[in-house]
């Protein structure tokens, strides 16, 4: 098949939400010819195409950073996250591709990229959209996050309604013949909300890659939090601040030599400010395995955010013991106190961390159960093959 693929971010490096996009592209490139259209946040991202050219017949990157005036004018008619990603040059290049090639399938990641397709897709072309999470619901959840400034929370709240209305209109158009999801929670929420949509709904969970070797560790009382850390990754920044303020002091009372390692791309200033004798920040790490070799306990102290967390799957694939809030495991088959240690309140979360640091060997069977679940349900090779087979069958039926 020839596939035109639209993404709201450059898929590489596969950090945070990019993980699912990148790995789906890698998997489908084994069987198909892919034409990639992605939005870059800066010029550095725009010129770094080498990695994606390994998997794609063509790679097109576009600069999201138009003039503020232009973006504000466009956002009068559409939600900001949609307007800032609806680009005339992208639409022109897509139209030229459709004129030049017989495209079998269009894959659109996130609804905020869909407007680029309006009036361009040839009749009969199969279109599908990947819903990484229910975007307007995730944005509305930001209102509950006390670490976000009040004016931003108000802006997120108002914008969530604009995005909800946009999505309502989008799914009424029935441009997309199928909608795929990373979690059943998001699938059921979509099913109950958008009853006018005639699209088939299908689950293809977020995955992770298996690792050939197990990591060794020198048994120091270290905890690790991995994730994108810039201002856009609000849930990760918030989680880092929440843990360092509310949990870490309680852990240090019982484990004075404990250390937290926070690793991720482009840490926001407030994350960098957390560094001290017990908190180490690793910005823009070169190798994921190097980071995971630093600790046997992985924390997911998330207070908001939807969708399946790639960092949970990575930790399980490496047989790391995970301590998580409900947000860290939502939308997955990972169960509290079966596959992960679990708590939502600061005192309880600290107690779970203390138990993990002092008596790690008592939880080896828990880490093994998490690894077994990963192998059964979340390996990218299996997910990718199933996704390809599904699209192939859908196109044959048309």
Structure characterization notes:
The chain is of the alpha/beta class and 398 residues long. It folds into two domains: 2-207 and 379-397, Rossmann fold, CATH 3.40.50; 222-377, 3-Layer(aba) Sandwich (Rossmann fold), CATH 3.40.50. The protein has 17 helices and 13 strands. It has helices at 18-28, 43-47, 50-53, 68-74, 80-83, 88-100, 135-141, 150-173, 184-193, 234-254, 269-272, 288-292, 310-317, 326-329, 346-358, 364-377, 380-397; strands at residues 2-7, 33-40, 58-63, 105-109, 126-131, 178-181, 200-203, 222-226, 259-264, 279-283, 297-300, 321-324, 341-342. Strands 3-2-1-4-5-6-7 form a seven-stranded parallel β-sheet, with helices on both faces. Strand 1 (2-7), helix 1 (18-28) and strand 2 (33-40) form a beta-alpha-beta unit. Helix 7 runs antiparallel to helix 8 (150-173). It is globular. The two termini are 14 Å apart. The mean pLDDT is 89.
């Amino acid at each position: 098949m020839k596939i035109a693929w639209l993404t709201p971010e450059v898929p590489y490096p596969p950090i945070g939400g990019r993980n699912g996009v990148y790995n789906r592209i890698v998997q489908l490139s084994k069987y198909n010819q892919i034409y990639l259209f992605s939005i870059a946040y800066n010029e550095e991202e725009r010129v770094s195409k080498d990695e994606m050219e390994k998997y794609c017949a063509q790679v097109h990157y576009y600069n999201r950073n138009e003039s503020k005036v232009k973006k504000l004018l466009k956002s009068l008619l559409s939600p900001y996250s949609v307007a800032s990603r609806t680009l005339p040059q992208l639409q022109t290049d897509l139209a030229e591709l459709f004129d030049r090639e017989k495209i079998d399938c269009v894959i659109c990641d996130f609804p905020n990229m869909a407007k680029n397709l309006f009036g361009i897709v040839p009749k009969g072309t199969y279109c599908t959209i990947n819903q990484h999470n229910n975007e307007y619901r995730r944005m509305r959840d930001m209102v509950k996050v006390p670490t976000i400034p009040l004016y931003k929370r108000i802006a997120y709240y108002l914008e969530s309604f604009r995005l909800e209305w946009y999505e309502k209109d989008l799914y009424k158009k029935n441009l997309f013949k199928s909608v795929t999801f990373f979690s059943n929670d998001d699938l059921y929420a979509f099913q109950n909300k958008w009853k006018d949509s005639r699209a088939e709904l299908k689950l293809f969970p977020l995955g992770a890659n298996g690792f050939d070797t197990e990591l060794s560790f020198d048994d120091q009382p270290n905890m690790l939090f991995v994730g994108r850390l810039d201002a856009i990754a609000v849930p990760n920044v918030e989680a880092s601040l929440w843990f360092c303020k509310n949990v870490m002091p309680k852990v240090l009372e019982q484990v004075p030599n404990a250390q937290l390692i926070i690793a991720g791309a482009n840490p926001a200033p407030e994350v960098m400010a957390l560094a001290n004798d017990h908190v180490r920040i690793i910005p823009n790490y070169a190798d994921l395995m190097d980071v995971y070799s630093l600790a046997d306990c992985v924390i997911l102290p998330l207070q908001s955010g939807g969708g399946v967390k790639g960092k949970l799957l990575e930790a399980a694939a490496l047989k790391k013991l995970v301590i998580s809030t409900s947000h860290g495991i939502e939308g997955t088959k990972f169960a509290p106190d079966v596959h992960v240690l679990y708590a939502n309140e600061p005192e309880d979360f600290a107690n779970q961390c203390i138990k993990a640091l002092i008596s790690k060997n008592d939880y080896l069977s828990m880490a093994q159960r998490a690894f077994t679940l990963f192998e059964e349900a979340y390996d990218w090779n299996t997910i990718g093959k199933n996704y390809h087979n599904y699209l192939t069958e859908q196109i044959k039926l048309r």
